[in-house]
Amino acid sequence: MRNRIFAKRKQRACALLVSSALFAALGAAPAIAGNIVQYTAPTSSSVPYGITSGPDGNIWFVEYVGNKIGMIATNGVFLNEFPIPTTLSLTTSITSGPDGNLWFTEYGSGKIGKITTAGAITEYSAGGIKPYWITTGPDGNLWYSGDHGYSIVKMNTSGAILAIYPLPSGTAAYQIVSGSDGNLWFAAINSIGMITPAGVYTLYPVPTVDALIQEIAPGHDGNLWFTEYSGNKIGKITTAGLITEYPLPTTHGDSEGISSGSDGNMVRRDR
After folding, report:
1. Distances in Å between the alpha carbon of 157 and those of 80, 87, 95, 96, 139?
2. Per residue in 241-265, pLDDT tens?
3. Which of 26, 109, 176, 178 could form a disulfide with 186 if both were Cys (CB 3.0 to 4.6 A apart)?
4. Sequence-distant (≥ 6) Cβ neighbours of residue 188 within 8 angstroms
């Protein structure tokens, strides 16, 4: 399985697999629920990580080992790969920016990258930390977690860092997303965090001890949904901070990622 990726962050692979969880982004509908279509990336052992819909209607993804940004059409045709100028960037996450470009993290080099839909890349300092997840905030800025998640950073589309918000010791922030309430929400191992555009944050501990929460996604219902890798549960948190947990039917499900499906349901991704 070393040359396959199941739309999973930690699978060592060189292929892109599209499941029903991603068909909304790809603009296609699977013939059968759970049907998987596989596309092989041009660069061998590139290890695709983060993936997002681009403003050009294509799908963009980062290549953790390949040190490139990839672009694929919704019909599965690979359109291009763009080398990242800095070697060993170890890029992990990508998002569509408010400026019509795509923005990505360079965990290995401590930079934030911007790529136009034509493939021109500009790199900016991440402020002395190593960025991991990135998203577009409700305020029109870029927000990312860094330093193994111990900070939340706000950057504008000119590449200037507007603020760095340190989190309490031991609070590791991973995926960060925009919520329906105009704030940002992030997965924080044993809690869910909320941070306002002004930088005021609140942490909501989950009931399950050692849940190991790394990924979170907004749902169609206005709530935030997250996976508990070690807790073997799916969690839901309202924008008021009320948490509900749902045990998985599979023992040791090892759920890592989650996304909102086109049918209004949430789709989990197991490791």
Report:
1. 24, 23, 12, 11, 11
2. 999 999 988 776 555 677 777 777 7
3. 176
4. 149, 167, 171, 172, 173, 174, 203, 213
Residue 150: count of CB within 10 angstroms of its CB: 16
- Pairwise CA distance, residues 54 & 155, whole Å: 20
Token output for 174 = 């991973």
Beta bridge partners of 106: 91, 111
Question: 179: closest CA among 214, 223, 149?
Answer: 223
Q: Which helix (H) or strand (E) holds 255?
A: strand 255-260
Burial profile 58-83: b = 16 or more Cβ within 10 angstroms, e = fewer = bbbbbbbbbbbbbbbeeeeebeebbe
Question: Six-digit token pair at 33?
Answer: 């629920």
Q: Is 206 exposed, middle or buried (0-12, 13-18, 19+ CB in 10 A)?
A: buried
Interacting residues of 144 by C-beta distance below 8 A, sequence separation 6+: 93, 105, 112, 126, 131, 132, 133, 134, 135, 152, 153, 155, 176
CB 121 within 8 A of CB 113: yes
Do 235 and 243 contact (CB within 8 A), yes or no?
yes
pTM for the predicted model, two decimal places: 0.84
Average pLDDT, the chain: 85
> Domains along the chain?
15-166 (2.130.10.10)
Q: List all residues 6 or more positions away from 61 whose beta carbon is below 8 Å from its beta carbon.
A: 16, 48, 49, 50, 51, 52, 69, 70, 72, 94
User: What is d(CA 16, CA 13) in angstroms, rounded to the nearest whole number?
Assistant: 8
Task: Of 82, 90, 81, give the one whose Cα is nearest residue 42.
Answer: 81
